[in-house]
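Cross-check.
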Amino acid sequence: MNYTIFDFLQLIGSLGIFLYGMKVFSDGLQKVAGGKLRAILKGMTTTRFRGIFTGFGATTVTQSSTTTTVMVVSFVNAGLITFIESTGVIMGANIGTTVTAWMVAIFGFKMEITPIAIMLIGVFFPFMFVGKEKLRSLAEAMIGFGILFIGLEFIKNAVPSISENPEMFVFLDQYTGFGFASILLFILVGAILTLLTQSSSAATTITLVMLFQGWIDFPIAAAMILGENIGTTVTANIAAVIGNVHAKRAARFHLIFNVVGVTWMLIVFQPFLVGIDNIMGFFAPGAGSVFEAADELGRANATLALSLFHTTFNVLNVMLLFAFVPMIIRFVEKIQTDKEDADSKFRLQYISSGMMSSPELSIAQAHKEIELFGKLIEKMHFSFEGLFFKKQKKHEKFLKKIKKREQITDNIELEIAEYLTNISGFNLSESATRKIRAMHSMINDLERVGDIYFQMSKTFEEMQNEDIKLPEDAVKEVGTMLDLIHGAIRHVRKNLDKNNGEFDLDKAIEIERKINAHRDKLMDLHYKRLEKGEYTNKAGFIFLDYLNRMEKIGDHLFNVSEALAGRKVKAAYDTVMDRK
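Predicted model, tokenized:
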């Protein structure tokens, strides 16, 4: 086959389309994900048993374990399900992919997903122009889903046309006489075949055709099936390249789970094949042994035997390794360490996916998450200070950090709110009910603080793009206001860390008074600068916007202190300030 550098570049471009589709799909999911979608996903994956049935069903419908595993990696990357919850779906996908072999062996049928992907893009593309943001985000996710599988089709067309030319493997027949070494060799061949076709279903189909045509015998075909079980994990691992550490772990679990399965099968390979032959002999006695399939009837029987081997192996692998999944998970977490910045771990650290046995303990765990929420808000404050006062070459880094952390605050609020709502379903004491309501208020105010820092970063970016500069005095004044805000953040974090009812509200009131008074003072200076023409109306508007937003941050932080104290003192405080 004449495979040129141009063909290779087409392959790289096809891979780029696939990865881009993956990114668009994942980003769209993060935007559209709400309580309902996540609740459905969690309902399907709350236990490994449910996850297995979910993976099996999804793979049976799509006729592609690639579809299922790529979606799982996307969901993990979007934070819709956890790495641990994904393991059951992955195991179920391994079983579901064997359905294709039965269809090919019996009917010669294979479902094409690319036309469906194109239809999906056609259906959802008009919704990219509607006014409702949720609908636009859903359309974005579905278009990404379609692009992802169009990329897979391009990949298949960009590699040597193996699926259309199975005779190119005839020469491998000379390598089938080396005993166990041949088995290992053709496991490698099966893995490479799946890697090239980017589809275990396509690789399985080719293997069945080769077996039916008599180019390889039954043991060699079975070895290729084992290799294809390893090769099918490649697509999910490619998809996880642009994912976070949890998505990478889900993909690594798939690889390790399948490699372990192939390893134990090699130990019992020959007796296992004899068992398959005996079963086929019982149900089809006239077809002869699958090891000696000479005529067309015997070879057709051998393809059914290969499908039986495929299914039996994957079902037994799930059954045997099911109890060892926690060990595999720990191993995956050890080899796939979290090398990313701590901010990328938007999953909650103290709240588990299930409910705690004691509601009071659950409330304590939720409070620990709110403590981390406060820490994240302080990081956003530092990032904005860096954006405002550091050199321009570092601005892009701080902008990205603030944007990422704002997205994290959205996820954290959703996760904690859902958890607190679940706790509320228990028979709680009046004190516990008050605590939960206070926590709902706190996470809402902290999330709003994150939004305001992001809005201020966008304002700063607008200043840079339009080359608007504030006078040196105005810059210093923003700095003094930020110092007061930081003091409020530190006080909130201190109160959060105590968690023993000893809340210093007097200090919180003092800080809030200082923030409001300083804001009023700086507004007077602002209007004097405008009157003297020291900066333009546009620059003055931006300065005033900073002041108002920072004062609003102070309000939200004070609300958190109120909620911690379990008392509403803001109204009384405002009354006092009005009298002054």
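Residues 5-335 form one domain. The first helix runs from residue 5 to 32. Passed to J.P. for a second look.
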